[in-house]
Structures are given as structure tokens and as C-alpha cells.
Design brief:
The complex is a heterodimer of chains A (about 325) and B (about 150). With about 325 residues, chain A is an alpha/beta fold. Chain A has helices at about 25-40, 65-75, 100-105, 120-130, 145-160, 180-190, 220-225, 250-255, 260-265, 285-290, 295-315; strands spanning about 55-60, 80-85, 110-115, 135-140, 170-175, 195-200, 215-220, 230-235, 270-275. In chain A, helix 2 links the parallel strand 1 and strand 2. Chain A is globular and about 55 Å long. Chain A is about 35% helix and about 15% strand. With about 150 residues, chain B is of the alpha/beta class. Chain B is about 25% helix and about 30% strand. Chain B contains 4 helices and 7 strands; from the N terminus they run H-E-H-E-H-E-H-E-E-E-E. In chain B, the strands form 2 sheets. Chain B has a 5-stranded parallel beta sheet. In chain B, a hairpin with a 5-residue loop joins strand 6 (about 135-140) and strand 7 (about 145-150). The N and C termini of chain B lie far apart (about 35 Å). The chains are: A alpha/beta (about 325), B alpha/beta (about 150). The interface between A and B is medium-sized, with 27 and 23 residues.
């Protein structure tokens, strides 16, 4: 499978499928562009005409509120037309194959697909089969990748801590094994040369050979949080767990739940993040989630600017479409 | 140019200046201090308002626009380095109007050349140039500010 599927011959973004296969210059360009889009919310008309006349389809095979609505809002702020298709409520249940669904949507002259699916690799599969002028953005595939979430998290870290990632210690805490968000974050933070990257979780929620990704593994929360600049809490993904990987949520909270007392070992100006949705009293205490270190709602706001950046960069110029009638 | 602007526009509390990235900002910085305008200088990056996005795609070097004042009812002096086709100014005016409703916009440019494609003219001009279709004039800077004429292949 070609990783260059994402980057065109001119070095520009074609599809946005995973952080793997991208380079630091492109990540920085996404962050800088997102910074410009963040200013659009200060306009009285919170909209730019960039993608006027373009059609973007949100193709969601898996439930999502935050990701889908921020993608929708991002597309609308770029003046694109947006179609939301939730597949559980459409043709797939009548037996139509994924490729047939795609062909039918393409026949409606769609320019971009934003895809979420419970199976890893779906966005790559779609990107390999769409017409050349159509771009694909991965909005989460199985346990594999969720690259726009990683980019908005990194954008949030850069806003909070400045552009020098080399002096930062970042701890990702929780269900690493099932988390596409963690995988994308690890790749992105490594590309940006983060100072120290830690994963903190019970043994059953750490994937085998995770050290090969360049992270330090901790099983003790107290140790894992020591002197951290940024703490990213992950949601416990009950829907992706087979069998008893945890004794109980109560037991998990007792050992790995983030409380004010536990946060005290981190740096005094520590930033606490969570991709949402939060299970209060499982991953973290409400005092932390709503406390002064939390930027959880800022993450949601920055998600719009970050997704505007990725969509406008991956959108194909019209010239490629001229041969297509 | 500053002198001419003083004659054309009454500089008061409602006056604000906006430079267009990148060359326009350099020119605007000089004019802004010469005219002693109270409001801080605004900067526009018109990348999101260009009319050629569908042909050439996203500008990879986009910077944030910053207008540190309310645009509503403001007399705005819009500054750019070169006025050529007029398309940049069209984009800049569209962007300004997404921030609010200015009382007026006055255009000042360092160089005014031939080749207009839109009905847009500058009120104040530093220099007029007649150039061939293949010739381009570009301001380089910020230190020193220099005009360069290049012949496109």
C-alpha cells in the first residue's frame, strides 16, 4: 500500500488518511493554516468563500457527534455545500456495497469525502477507488487512525505551550490499545520531535511493541504524570473491548482516574486534554475536567479551524476535473 | 504619498489603516507612522478570498488576518504595494466587509501599473508604471524596501 497516496506529485496534500506518510513541513503547514482560519471566527461573517460551489460528503458509518458536527461546521465556514450521510440509516442496510455507494455519490459530482468507519483501512480503500479529482479525509477508521483529531490536539498544545515541542513532556493516559487517536497523536508528536512521549495504562490496554513507536511505557499513573507538561486522557472504549480487559470501571478510576491530587505531580502549568466524549468519574474527576488546567472545550473550538485547514489544503483544484464530463 | 493622503482623507479617530500581505504591510507601516494614525495597523491576508483558488489551490504560506479595531463605520485606508489586475483589492474589500460595514475605503498603492481587469482605481499612487504583459513588478523587503521588475518566461 502506497503511503504516497496522500501526497501529490507536487508535494501537496491529496488525501488526509493518516499521519504516517506525512512530513514535518506538511504538519506545520496544516497548523499555520489552521492558525489563520482560527481568526475567521472573529469576523462578523464567520465564513470565507474559499470552497464556494464545492460539495463535501460526510460519510459516517459509525456514530459521532463532535467530529461530524465540527467537520460540518468547518465545511460550511469554507462556504462548501455539505451532505451528511449516516450509513446505518441508508443503503448499506439494503445490501448495497461500499463501492456502489461511492459510485452513486460520485455521480452527484462530489468533491470530497469525509469518512468514518469502524473498520481500519476504510478511508485508504475509498481513496484508492475514487476519481482523481475527489479527495478523501479520514475522520476515524477502526483502531487505526484519527489524524484530524491528532492535528487539533497538536494545534491546542502549540497554542498553550508555544511552537517548541522539544522541551515538552507529553503523557497519554488510558486505553492506548483501542485508540486510533493515540496512534495518530504518537506519530504526529514524534514527527514534531516532542521532548518525551509517555503512554500510561494498565498492561491489558497497552498494545504489544508500543515502545517501537518511540514512547516510554508507564503502568503507574503517579510515575507517568511526574513533571508532565501535557496530559492527554483517553476515553475507555467499552464498545471496542472484547471480554474482560478491566475488572471494572470503578477499579479503573481508582488506579488511573485523573484527580486534582494526582495531577499535583505534573508541572504546575500542566495542560489537561481529552478528545471526548468524557466519562466523568471513569477517566477523570469533574474537578479536573472543568478545572483551570483543562482545555477540553478549546479542543472542540480548535477542531473547526484545524478541519478547515485540512479540507482546504486537500481540496483539488478544478483543472483536474476538466477531462471529466 | 502621506502628504497626498492627508489632503484626500481627514485623519481622525475614525480613520484606520489596513495593509495587504506582504508588500502592502511594509508600505502601510511607513504611512501609518507618517500619518500618526491612532488605531493600530490592521493586516489582511486575502488567501481565503482569492478568485483563483479553484485553479491553483491553497496558498501554502497563508498568515492570519488581524484587524485590531471594529470595521463598522470606520474610514479605512487600504494599502497595497502594486495595483495590477485589481483582483487582490476586490478580494481585500470582500474580506473587509466580512468584518463589518466600513464608512468608506480609500485605496493607496506604491505602484500603479497597467493591466487592470476590474473597475478598481487607487486614490493615491506613489508611482505609475507602463509595463509589458510579461513584466512583473515586485516589492522586496522589509529592509531595504526595493522594487524589482522581472520578466516572466
Amino acid at each position: 500500500m502506497s503511503v504516497n497516496l496522500q501526497i501529490g506529485e507536487d508535494g501537496r496534500l491529496r488525501h488526509f488518511l493518516s499521519i504516517e506518510g506525512l512530513n514535518r513541513a506538511l504538519l506545520t503547514e496544516i497548523l499555520d493554516t489552521a492558525e489563520s482560519f482560527a481568526g475567521v471566527t472573529e469576523q462578523s461573517v464567520k465564513k470565507v468563500p474559499l470552497l464556494r460551489g464545492r460539495t463535501i460528503v460526510n460519510l459516517f458509518f459509525e456514530a459521532s457527534t463532535r467530529t461530524r458536527t465540527t467537520f460540518e461546521l468547518a465545511a460550511k465556514r469554507l462556504s462548501a455545500d455539505v451532505l451528511n450521510i449516516n450509513i446505518s440509516a441508508s443503503s448499506a442496510v439494503k445490501g448495497e456495497t461500499l463501492l456502489d455507494t461511492l459510485r452513486n455519490l460520485e455521480a452527484m459530482h462530489v468533491d470530497m469525502f469525509v469518512v468514518r468507519h469502524a473498520d481500519s483501512g476504510t478511508a485508504h480503500f475509498i481513496a484508492r477507488h475514487v476519481q482523481p479529482h475527489v479527495s478523501v479525509i479520514n475522520a476515524g477508521d477502526g483502531r487505526h487512525a484519527h489524524p484530524t483529531q491528532a492535528m487539533l490536539d497538536i494545534f491546542t498544545i502549540r497554542r498553550e505551550k508555544g511552537p517548541d515541542f522539544g522541551r515538552l513532556t507529553v503523557a497519554i493516559v488510558g486505553d492506548i490499545a483501542h485508540s486510533r487517536v493515540a496512534r495518530s497523536q504518537i506519530h504526529a508528536l514524534n514527527l514534531l520531535n516532542v521532548g518525551e512521549l509517555r503512554v500510561v495504562a494498565p498492561r491489558t490496554l497497552i498494545p504489544a511493541h508500543v515502545e517501537s513507536l518511540g514512547v516510554r511505557v508507564f503502568h503507574d499513573l503517579h510515575e507517568g504524570l511526574r513533571d508532565a507538561d501535557v496530559v492527554i486522557m483517553l476515553r475507555l472504549q467499552r464498545e471496542r473491548m472484547e471480554g474482560a480487559m478491566l475488572p471494572s470501571e470503578h477499579e479503573y478510576y481508582r488506579l488511573y482516574g485523573l484527580t486534582r491530587e494526582r495531577l499535583a505531580t505534573a508541572k504546575p502549568d500542566v495542560t489537561v486534554m481529552h478528545p471526548g466524549p468524557i466519562n466523568r468519574g471513569v477517566e477523570m474527576d469533574s474537578h479536573v475536567a472543568d478545572g483551570p488546567h483543562s482545555v477540553i472545550l478549546e479542543q472542540v473550538t480548535y477542531g473547526i479551524a484545524t478541519r478547515m485547514a485540512v479540507m482546504s489544503m486537500a481540496m483539488h483544484p478544478v483543472t483536474g476535473q476538466e477531462s471529466h464530463d | 504619498m502621506a502628504g497626498e493622503l492627508r489632503e484626500r482623507v481627514s485623519i481622525d479617530g475614525q480613520t484606520a489603516m489596513v495593509g495587504i500581505h506582504t508588500g502592502g504591510v511594509w508600505v502601510a507601516q511607513r504611512l501609518h507612522s507618517l500619518l500618526g494614525i491612532n488605531e493600530p495597523l490592521g493586516v489582511l491576508d486575502i488567501s481565503f478570498y482569492r478568485d483563483d483558488f479553484t485553479r491553483i489551490g491553497m496558498n501554502p504560506q497563508v498568515r492570519p488576518s488581524q484587524l485590531p479595531f471594529s470595521v463598522d463605520d470606520r474610514h479605512i485606508i487600504l494599502v497595497d504595494d502594486v495595483l495590477h489586475t485589481g483582483r487582490t483589492i476586490r478580494a481585500a474589500m470582500n474580506e473587509l466587509f466580512d468584518y463589518g460595514r466600513p464608512a468608506s475605503i480609500t485605496l493607496a498603492v506604491l505602484v500603479e501599473r497597467d493591466g487592470r481587469e476590474l473597475p478598481i482605481e487607487a486614490a493615491v499612487t506613489g508611482q505609475h508604471m507602463e509595463l509589458g504583459e510579461q513584466e512583473h513588478v515586485k516589492l522586496t523587503g522589509p529592509e531595504p524596501l526595493q522594487l524589482e521588475i522581472n520578466r516572466a518566461p
